[in-house]
Amino acid sequence: MRLSQLLCRGLWSVALLSVLHGSAALAAGETPIVVGTRITLTSKVLGEERPLMIHLPGGYEAAPTERYPVLYVLDAETHFVHVAGMVEFLARTRHLPEMIVVGVPNTTDRDRDLTPPFSKTERIDDGRLLSEVAPKAGHADTFLRFFTEELAPAVEARYRTQPYRILVGHSFGGLFAMHVLTHKPESFNAYVAISPSIQWNSSELLRTAPEAFARLAAPGRALYLYEDAEEAPNVARLRTLTQELRRRKPANLTWRYDELRGQDDHASIPHIGAYEGLRFLFNGWKVPEKLQMAGDLARLEAHYAGLSRRVGYPVVPQERLFNGVGYHHLKGKRLPQAIAAFERNVSLHPDSANAHDSLADALEAAGRLQEALTHRERAVSLAREHQDPDLPHYQKHADELRARLAAQPAP
Q1: Could you give the CA distance from residue 148 to residue 391 in angstroms, rounded to a whole number?
Q2: So which residues are the signal peptide here (predicted)?
Q3: What CATH number has the domain spanning 10-281?
């Protein structure tokens, strides 16, 4: 067996620290672009301080009742920035839900944390004992306890989360993801394993994973496997594994395996693999364009009901989707349909200043000025409470409507 090479970290680490800590000097008038924040969690399981990188959705503070799935990224010193940006982009284009991204960087020993137990007689390609080459390796189960007993509970206590966890890992991180799904599948709902090092311990996963997946008791698990087509030995292993999965047809596991062909390699495929993995996990999340344009609220609600059954938690339609439907009807002067869409949006997102302000647009167009003012004022109140940067915008709308009402002749 061969040990996977460690990831190149230098340039990524410098760039990440610069973004997170604003270490570069800024000229007057310049504002840093912040990808996330860094916090520290004291782990009793590991007996050490663990740094974490946290990315929250852009509208997190302005939407105090919204809850989000959590995506955990291993090797975060390399992968946090590009995965967080990818999640933000795909959520903005409505291909997946907004998510909290938790990056888990390596600290003292990556081999220790990410690799499963192994045989004392296991040797690497040059004949040396694995226990001599990597004496601290093989403690993935302890690292998993850190996740399930400390990290995930801490994240779910501190942030507003949905009961949906995703684990993304590359190389040894992919091996860790496969090990968790095989032994403690309830730990996460979905797993993305990119170029997983399944040669570990004489390819033990090839022997144990198919049977474990076939008897999965936890319902609704999902697995995405991705490998560089040039990684010939590992491609052969993954093809053997997936052939067995096709034969067994595990009832509680939705899975897919893809191979990358092109000029990328083991070090560069994590970005593409994470993108494809997320698209697979949330395939069908985006509302079809024709359905959006039709503006049929019943069919839109049915779409989200289907998504809710699939992921196992109530999926609330995105605020900007129903807002778009409302303005589509408003532009076409279909006022009853516009008001219905905006009213539904307010019922789904009662603490959104934008939802109230948008409903007021339709009510004002319908001549229902006093009702419109109620929602204008509610938008101002919510924006002030949540320190919404659009407060001046909502205040202007409310002031203009008050002036319009004041100018009306007395009845």
Answers
A1: 40
A2: 1-27
A3: 3.40.50.1820
Q: What pLDDT does 331 receive?
A: 95
Query: How many helices (H) and strands (E) would you count in the chain?
Result: 17, 8
Query: What is the structure's pLDDT at 25?
Result: 59
Contacts of 188 (CB under 8 A, 6+ apart): 72, 165, 166, 167, 180, 181
In three-state secondary structure terms, 162 is strand
* pLDDT band at residue 2 under the 50/70/90 scheme: very low
This prediction has a pTM of 0.87
Residues 6+ apart with CB under 8 A from 86: 271, 274, 275, 278
Pick 241 or 33 by higher pLDDT.
241
pLDDT for residue 6 is more than 50: no
The amino acid at residue 221 is R
Domain boundaries, the chain: 10-281, 289-407
User: Using CA atoms, how far apart are residues 91 and 93, in angstroms rounded to an integer?
Assistant: 5
Q: What average pLDDT is seen over the chain?
A: 90
Could you list the beta-strand ranges (E) of 229-328: 253-260
Rounded average pLDDT over 145-159? 98
Sequential DSSP letters for 266-290: TTTHHHHHHHHHHHHHTTT-SPPHH
CA of residue 216 relative to chain centroid, distance: 24
* Cα 367 to chain centroid, rounded: 42
Q: What is the CATH number of domain 289-407?
A: 1.25.40.10
CA angle 234, 237, 238 (to 5 degrees): 85
The partner residues of 227 in beta bridges, in order of sequence, read 259
161-170 and 68-74: which strand pairing?
parallel
Nearest Cα residue to 113 out of 156, 147, 80: 147
